[in-house]
Amino acid sequence: MHCERFGELEPATSLWLKAGREILDGLEQAAGTFDEIGCAPDEAEARIRAGQALAAAGRRTEAGEQFERALGFYRAVGATRYASQCEQAFADTA
Question: Domain containing 45 — which CATH number?
Fold first, then answer.
């Protein structure tokens, strides 16, 4: 698989490569790297997926924080469908 090939690559000198590795390990870290890169759409996607994983693990407060950050982006760009999904997920953590 392609995922196995990450281990063969040189240590991450690219933030994109770092984010790719972090997606495999945990989306919270990847979201932070996407923020560092300045790629807000990828950051928001990683945050909503991280929130979903955290909620499934019973970590509601942390999940809510991820949803809230993603929601800020979706509202700012007028992505109403994604904002609605995020609002519902956020409400479910309350």
Answer: 1.25.40
Tens digits of per-residue pLDDT, 27-40?
999 999 999 999 99
SS3 6: helix
Domain range holding 49?
A: 13-93
Question: What's the pLDDT tens digit per position in 54-77?
Answer: 999 999 999 999 999 999 999 999
Quote the CA–CA distance of 38 and 63 in Å, as a whole number: 22
Assessment of whether the complete model's pTM goes beyond 0.85: no
Domain annotation covers residue 49: yes
Q: Which tokens go with 50?
A: 């991280």
Number of domains in the chain: 1
6 occurs within a structural domain: no
DSSP-based helix, strand, coil % in the chain, nearest 5:
80, 0, 20
The answer as to whether 86 is a domain residue is: yes
User: Which amino acid is it at 60?
Assistant: R
CA 13, CA 39: separation in Å to the nearest integer?
17
